[in-house]
Amino acid sequence: MTEGGDRTLPDPSEWVERYGDLLYRYALARLADPDAARDVVQETLLSAVKGRTSFVGRADPRTWLVGILKHKIVDHIRRIVREAPADDDPEAAWFDSSGRWRNPFGTVTEPDRMLDSREFWRALRRCLAGLPRRQAAAFVLRELEGMDTAGLCQELGITATNAWVLLHRARLGLRRCLEKEWGRVAEEPNR
To answer: CA-to-CA distance for 159 and 37, rounded, in angstroms?
Structure first.
């Protein structure tokens, strides 16, 4: 650190070793796709190399890189949502013809403990990968990236009502999947 609290940016040749794992884990938790996570991390590092002169040292280099990564994740989600076919959102999977849930869900007994466990995050990644793209994108942007409804609507090019429907269906699908996946993922060896 330099005088005045500023931080210096390490040489780009050190970034992968210093920050690569952190960036990859962050991206994987949000995208649920190892290939996509590697791609956005690579895009992040390339952008950081190109823009390293804009680093003024007010933040930790790791924080600066994660900030770039967040933007790359949003860009990736925007790309896949726009490329997804319109019929990628099958309503019949969760609701019957009268609009009621096909299968009522049980309750989660210890949500705070689940959120801290690696098994939960592995199950969540697997379940996110099984959702229709638009639902997964809406959920990731809103719940994991903390985007507000207006930003979500703008990023996905949808109305607030459509955002609510996508989020509702994503939550239902995730809950259903997590109830099935939780035991299976918890029994798998750590990856």
So the answer is: 28
CA distance 120 to 118: 5
Q: Identify residue 35 by its one-letter amino acid code.
A: D
Confidence tier at 72 by pLDDT (50, 70, 90)? very high
Residue 13, class by beta-carbon neighbours within 10 Å (0-12 exposed, 13-18 middle, 19+ buried)?
exposed
| Amino acid making up residue 166 | L
| Distances 27 to 35, 44, 64, 86, 172 between C-alpha atoms, Å | 10, 10, 15, 26, 23
Reply yes or no on whether the pLDDT at 190 is more than 70: no
Two structure tokens written together for 126: 């697997």
pLDDT at 44: 94
Q: Which domains does the chain have, with CATH numbers?
A: 12-83 (1.10.1740), 91-187 (1.10.10.10)
Which amino acid would we find at residue 49?
V
- pLDDT (tens digit per residue) in 109-144: 455 555 556 777 788 888 888 999 889 989 988 888
Q: How far is CA 8 from CA 43, 179, 186, in A?
A: 22, 46, 41
